[in-house]
Amino acid sequence: MAYREVGTGATAVGLRVDDGVVLAAEKRISYGGYVLSRVGKKVFLIKNRFGLACAGLFADIQTISRLMNVEIHRYELEMARAMNVRTAAKLLSIILYQYKYMPFLSEIIFGGVDDGGPHIFVMDPLGSLIEDNYAAVGTGAPVAIGVIESEYKKGLTLEETEKLAVKAVKAAISRDAVSGDGVDVAVISVNKSYEKFYQVV
């Protein structure tokens, strides 16, 4: 990823289970090895049905979040119906591809719940769209994905999945210098959606 060349990075993960979706990311914002902030938000809930977890340049992450908030809201006003997760993910994929000559320097995990159940999509800066049960992106992804793959299984509850997501990001934080300072989590299910912060000691 190009953002690694400028010395910024992050760790973000997403997991899908029968009851919903869990997204998590750490909070450190760094540039060129220098820590700019310890309170960066890289996980975003959108309309309590969708969520983003991102790694990359912080300005690009914020812009993508704002774009998706506006575009999903506009679609639902014009069409008078709720957007499903696959349509929202495809919309984000198209937006990213439109910027292919000057791409957003970010990797994205997009998830949500609709009538078809929970979904997780992982995307690169050019908008490639891959649906999976779990994903990890960013500089800490090699560590995080190892933790997830060793413990993920069918039938996990949302609470167990949340703990696994936090454990994966914490493991990456302990081994990745540009990740750190706590874990933000977004949990999306049919019945409720919420965000939570976990301190890293």
Summarize the structure in words.
This protein has one domain: 4-Layer Sandwich (Glutamine Phosphoribosylpyrophosphate, subunit 1, domain 1). Strands 10-1-2-11-12 form a five-stranded antiparallel beta sheet, with helices on one face. It has a five-stranded antiparallel beta sheet with strand order 5-6-7-8-9, with helices on one face. Strands 3-4 form a two-stranded antiparallel ribbon. The two termini are 29 Å apart. The mean pLDDT is 92. By secondary structure, the chain is α+β, with helices and mostly antiparallel strands. The protein is 33% helix and 34% strand.
Layout of helices and strands:
Layout (H helix, E strand, L loop, with lengths): L1 H4 L5 E7 L2 E7 L2 E3 L2 E4 L5 E4 L3 E7 L1 H22 L5 H14 L7 E9 L2 E7 L5 E3 L2 E5 L2 H11 L6 H16 L9 E7 L3 E6 L3
Antiparallel strand pairs: 1-2, 1-10, 2-11, 3-4, 5-6, 6-7, 7-8, 8-9, 11-12
Helix pairs in contact: 4-5
Q: What can be said about this structure in brief?
A:
The protein is of the alpha+beta class.
